[in-house]
Each structure stands twice: as structure tokens, then as C-alpha cells.
Amino acid sequence: MTRIALLDGGMGQELLKRSSRPPSPLWSAQVMLDEPAIVEDVHLAYIEAGARIITLSAYTATPERLARDADASLFEPLQRAAIAAAERARARSGRQVRIAGCLPPLVASYLADVAPDDETALATYRRIVTMQADAVDLFLCETMPSVRLARAAATAAVESGKPVWLSLTITDDTSATLRSGEPLGDALAQLGDCGAQAFLLNCSKPEAIDAAWPVMARQDRPVGAYANGFTSIETLKPGGTVASLEARHDLGPEQYAAFAMNWVRNGARVVGGCCEVGPAHIAELARQLAQAGLEITGEP
After folding, report:
1. Separation between Cα atoms, residue 118 and residue 124, nearest integer Å
2. How far is CA 1 from CA 164, 290, 292, 293, in A?
3. In angstroms, rounded to a whole number, what is the distance separating the alpha carbons of residues 63 and 94?
């Protein structure tokens, strides 16, 4: 029986749907500060939907973002809070679930040119890895917009001795290029020696992932994807809020699962969801995976 690792869905947008407060530049980290119980509840919702891997809600809790949008001293408290929320949700579920550490873009999603220099990026990722390593089962370097930032994140994660999955974000124009403009095939070739056990695509339109899939299918390790449900990401700027982003109305649970199942039929061994892909989407994907006779697990 083929094993499929099922990730959770998007955290930040789901938190905002459940929060009583307006979006802030800190996004998911703001909810962690103001309403931490919601974070735990969302983790649990994904587990109950069928996810076998939940990712720490620490995407915007980087030193660079906190220094710009709040207070850099919040870094360690927010990292600890993210770990505690995931651990409590797993304990409440009573299920065998893996926790993934979160190594995100350090300054802003999608924009490769705002990332710190290589030395600074590596130092920051090492700080994050140090905070998370004892609590996680693997590291997910996600929404990486460039080879340079992906290598820094993967280098720090590999030093932990934990498995590392590297996920790149690609442009939505179906050209199979990273947000930096680097061709996906070239990027994966350059990252072949980075130590990642799996290569993924995330936080891109599912149609863009479809177009890039022939490149992913040629890789020499497990591959996968978890798309977003935004109409466009063009209005999101560093230090801005997600209030400017709009969810698609043509990507409900069944429609999203159809995309993901197509990736699975073409070799994906890791699937899940990103922004605007919620627990109902993951539940439908889990249902379709089981219906297809596939084994849903926490590793490919």
C-alpha cells in the first residue's frame, strides 16, 4: 500500500477566521499573543480532519519580523508558546501525530529580495532551530522564495539531526519559476546536496503547481505540495496585513482535493494545504486518499 504523508492546512488565515480581532502585521503570531487557545484548537481541528503532521504556528515569529512589527524580545516567548500549543493539541487528540518545526521566510513571504544576507539568514535560522529542535519530529523549511534562502534554512535544519523537508514557493503565472525568478528545475538541481529528505511546493496556486509538476516528478526523493487558496498575492507587502488578500470561491474542499489527488496520482507522497485551505479541505482530502486505498501516515 502506498503511503501518503498528510500535512495540516493553513494556520494564519484559519486563526483569523476564528479570532475576534482584526488582522495585524504579525498575523498568526498576533493571535498567539492575544488568543492562544485558538491556536491549539486549530491544530486539533486539523488532527481530527486527518492530518498526521501539524506545523508549529511560528511562521511570523522570526526576529526580523518581530523587530519590525512588534518587539524582538517576543521571539523566545512566541516560539515556546507555539511549541506548547502544538503539544497540547496532540495530547488532546490522543493520536499519533508528528510535529514539524517551522522555518519560514524571515522578513516577508514571496519577496526574495528583502531577505537578509546569507550570514544573517543562517544565524537567524540557527536561532529558530535551537528553540524548536527538542520539540519537533522534523523541520519544514517552507515558502522559500529563492535558492539562497532555502539553502540557509536547510543548512540550519540539517544541523539539528532531524529530518528536513524543503518547500519552495513558485510564481502563479504557471512558468515553473521561484518567486525570485529562478527556474524551478535549476533551483532543485542546486539544492540537491542541501540535505533535505523531501522537496515540496507550497503557498502557490494549485494551477501553478500543476504546471510545475513535471519538474517535481523528476526528483530523486519524495516530493509533494500544499497549495494556497488566494485569488492573488500581489497586494501583500512587507509589514502589511493579510486584509488585502481575498480567498477564492472556486476552491472548496472537493475542488482542492481534486488538485491534490492529481499530484498524488503523479507521484506526490506529501500533500496538505496552505493559506485558505482549512480543516474541511483536509478532511475531504483524507477521505479521498482513504477511498483510493492509500495509507495516510506522517512520513512518505
Report:
1. 10
2. 24, 11, 10, 7
3. 33
Return the number of other C-beta atoms located less than 10 Å from residue 160's C-beta: 18
Nearest to 151 by CA among 184, 179, 202, 190: 190
Tell me the C-alpha distance between 279 and 146, whole Å.
29
**pLDDT tens digits for 134-169?**
999 999 999 999 999 999 999 999 999 999 999 999
pLDDT at 137: 98
- Asked whether the whole model's pTM tops 0.85, one would answer yes
| Rg (the chain; Cα; Å) | 17
**DSSP3 helix / strand / coil % (the chain, rounded to 5):** 45, 15, 40
Sheet with 98-103: list strands edge to edge: 53-55, 98-103, 138-144, 164-168, 198-202, 223-226, 270-271, 3-6, 295-297
Contact predicate 209/277, CB 8 Å = no
Cα(168)–Cα(121) distance, rounded to whole angstroms?
A: 16
Q: How far is CA 295 from the centre of its chain?
A: 22
d(CA 45, CA 8): 9
pLDDT band at 236; cut points 50, 70, 90 = confident
- Domain residue limits at 158: 3-297
**pLDDT value, residue 21:** 83
Cell of 109: 513571504
Q: How far apart are alpha carbons 209 and 217 in whole angstroms?
A: 11
Domain count within the chain: 1
Which CATH number is 139's domain given?
3.20.20.330
Backbone angle region of 176, left / alpha / beta, with phi > 0 → left and psi within -120 to 50 → alpha: left
